[in-house]
Design a protein that fits this description.
Layout lengths: L1 H18 L8 H16 L1 H5 L7 H19 L3
Helix pairs in contact: 1-2, 2-4
């Protein structure tokens, strides 16, 4: 599926960043799933499970920005 391809690409990107010593990641597939889950928690599941309306572009950007900050707080090389 298209989503699986995107998540596979994210896993490869994280693995490449770890090999380049930009991220500290033992399990790139797990880290990719964590990141995807951060996004899905606000942009997918509420719409599917609770029939909430889609988030607007400003909300999307805030969700993305916060997910990136959380991801980097955990995996950024110190």
């Amino acid at each position: 599926s298209e989503l699986a391809e995107l998540e596979g690409g994210l896993t490869r990107w994280i693995q490449d960043a770890a090999e380049d010593h930009r991220l500290t990641v033992d399990d790139p597939a797990f880290a990719a799933e964590q990141f995807a889950a951060l996004l899905k928690a606000f942009t997918f599941w509420p719409q599917v499970v609770a029939a909430q309306p889609p988030v607007d572009s400003d909300q999307q950007q805030g969700i993305i920005d916060n997910a990136v900050k959380m991801f980097l707080a955990r995996y950024r090389v110190r």
